[in-house]
Batch of 2 targets.
Target 1
Amino acid sequence: MSGPIPWRLKCVECDTMHRGDEVRYRCDCSGTLDVITTLAAANRKPLLETFDARRSSFIPADVSGVWRFREIVLPLSPDEVVTKGEGNTPLYDASSLQDFTGGANLRLKHEGENPTGSFKDRGMTVGVSMAKKLGCDRVACASTGNTSASMAAYAAQAGMRAFVFIPEGKIAFGKLSQALAYGARTIQIPGDFDAAMELVERVCVDEGIYLLNSVNPFRIEGQKAIALELMQDLRWSAPDWIALPGGNLGNNTAIAKGLLELRDLGLIDHLPRIAVIQAEGANPLYTAWHDGTDVQPLKANTLATAIQIGAPVSWRKSLRGIQSLNGVVEQVSDQEILDAKARVDAAGIGAEPASCATVAGVRKLIQGGVIQPNESVCGILTGHLLKDPDTVVRFHQDQLESIDPGAAANPPVASDGTLEDVRRLLR
Ligand code: F0G
């Protein structure tokens, strides 16, 4: 790489600064790293006008809901980026769920409506663009499915070889099929996501393959764009709360970082609070938060396979962000997740199970008096409904162990194919 680059990497544990143009995921002390970008003193109005103007540009990097904010995300030039036009996701009015959540002012930002069907595309466009800038032609990740689907697609577009490490039998079919289809070498590991994560980090360092899990600090920079785009959607006025699911804890880390940077630049005048929702069977952050301890790894088990993670890599950064935003951590059961999913789906919005932990968590926090019924809440839906069709079909046919679909069950009904019988079914 030639010429000075305007960012450096700072250790979250010991504050040591590292160069921004070396392949490095951790400090020598093993702490994870933050990208620190030297931003020119922002002039609020021109910057916001630029962000708005780019929405109607014909340059792919301008239209991207990540690179449109490149001054804050990562100042690469438009011709350096590998983009699929990610972002620009809808912000649905979900006030029709009021009878379920108890809140009158819920909106849902649907990150599942990204090019590969999950929020991961925002981090991946930056991760793969950095891989290209650093001259890497092989990339790898461990995944519960969405990261691998996204990485496989962006790597293929950039002409890179992709290696994905997945926990055997524990990822939803939609996601596995994407990794295979986009041509990634898909390595199934006996064991869970946490085992795959540990392995891939070692393999990447040993073999000189570029690691694209969220331990890679550039992934976090891209992921920040959820917060940036949400604030642009809301005309730079923050809601009372942002709620999202937590697994490996990269996303809430990124959203907090993005919001704090917007506040520091004077682009928003107040910060929202953040609510991170974990599945009861995969709740190491929830436990640490409530006990005031470090995160203790556990064996994770939840139907929301995307967040079936017991040893989250980014927990320290994540806690720091939650504290800065006066946030909370909540947990919800699989039954609560699937009840919420049935409502999100039936509202015509639709999302994969892990995403719906968001809505289940909002409901629980309103019931518990933490979120007030009239407060404005923006929930993040992280993955598309079609990522996990198996769980949907089994839910509606009452075939999921220990889950009761109740009145939400909508199984297919059989007909003998005669007009008379079909008429009977329409009644
Ligand atoms: N929701 C979905 C749909 C996910 O795929 C993930 C994480 C999360 C929420 C949690 O986000 O890890 O940033 O706290 N999926 C990763 C993967 C682990 O491999 O696809 P997080």
Note: Residues 118, 120, 143-147, 214, 245-251, 306-307, 352, 354-355, 382-383 surround F0G (CB under 6 Å).
Target 2
Amino acid sequence: MLEIKDLNVFYGAIHALKGISLTVEEGELVSLIGANGAGKTTTLHAISGLIPSAPGSVVSLDGADLRKTPANKIISMGLAHVPEGRHVFARMTVEENLRMGAYILRDQKQIASGLELVYTHFPRLKERRRQLAGTLSGGEQQMLATGRALMTEPKILLMDEPSMGLSPLLVKEIFAIIETLHKSGITILLVEQNAKMALAVADRAYVLETGKISMSGSAKELAEDDRVRKAYLGA
Ligand code: ATP
């Protein structure tokens, strides 16, 4: 479904991604793990078209070249992005935030169906739909950012560090939601520093080290690999 081949990204003279390749097949949950500054966020930004990639890079969704597609069109092709740090609109209500996620949709029926989908996965957002987003807890804001991305009923969801800044209990809750989304048939590419949780929920995973993929395989294999255990699982 999603194919990345020889992806190179430069920030001026900094070569942030050095020819990475990865695939995500329909229905899979694939995790991309790595330390601070490895290039995880850059990878997601390059896929969503938020930053340009170098000539010769391949980023394709169901065979369509995303590098030639404007970011708003990428959303209508079925790809949605939950950004690092959530970025909810603090002075807007929960429901207004969700409606912002559907800004590319004109059809009221589609918007209503998006809201229904989000409220089914996140009953807590339904309870709080008139509350200002800035007054939600960190975990609830992560639910809202995820819900906002679900409004267009995407085929594939890119999630950037959903566990960031959350207590261990909330991290568990967010990962349980990610598993439910995966089981409901949504394809997910998950970027995480929390390698333990990311490997526990994924089908497959890639390890990113200073802009290069250093290892890949089934999540189970990687979780048992000595190098991964030492470097990322605190073993
Ligand atoms: P983190 O988990 O800390 O967000 P990451 O794996 O997501 O890390 P990136 O944010 O993708 O890493 O950063 C990859 C590299 O690119 C880092 O060396 C970073 O300093 C650099 N970088 C990221 N954004 C920019 C930018 N706008 N300008 C210059 N360098 C950047």
Note: The two ends are 34 Å apart (CA to CA).
